[in-house]
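Bug report (template v2)

What were you trying to do?
Predict the complex of my protein with flavin mononucleotide.

What happened?
Run completed; filing so the output is reviewed.

Input:
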Amino acid sequence: MNLIYENIISRRSCRSFTDQEISKDNLDLILKAGISAPSGMNRQSWQFTVIRKQANIAKLEKVVGKAANRAENYDFYAPNVIILVSNDPENVNGLADASCAMENMFLMAHSLGIASCWINQLRTICDVEEVRELLDSYGIPSNHIVWGIADLGYAAEIGKEVVKKENVIKFVDSL
Ligand SMILES: Cc1cc2nc3c(=O)[nH]c(=O)nc-3n(C[C@H](O)[C@H](O)[C@H](O)COP(=O)(O)O)c2cc1C
């Protein structure tokens, strides 16, 4: 089978990770895949902020959970690394650009045996004071929206296979 296709269709979101560290070489490949994504008008006005220290991931998790009113049972599923993909809100393609970059990183990670998940809660709460203070401390530009967090790590449990709807594909051949 075509290797790219095989990689695409076998990727699953993962919500349970081991403690195994992702090597810097592999992380660099994943980030290179992220910045190689297409971007509207080639603006590349995004930033990829990498957090590797578990204490820092836990701190962000706590602040996001509180700001999203989900403090009780909220977590990022304890990944080894998170990558925050942010962009200037003036760029109307910010979310689309981030989505292309996130999927590139997920697929690169998967090809290296590293699992991933999109964490979505940050995008609407970046300007909550406690959240913005943390984002500032990471060097994320103060006007940026974090469109997505990429969880990365080795899977403790293989992600559940979901059924992909085939009937969403429509050919217009008869006109
Ligand atoms: C825009 C977007 C936001 C998502 N947000 C979350 C999230 O916050 N938490 C989560 O566990 N999964 C999240 N996911 C993962 C989806 O739940 C997952 O992609 C979907 O169930 C299909 O499963 P698959 O990725 O294994 O194909 C998100 C995915 C996308 C594309």
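What did the reviewer find?
The pocket of flavin mononucleotide is lined by residues 12-13, 15, 117-121, 159, 162 (CB under 6 Å). Residues 7 and 111 are 6 Å apart (CA to CA).
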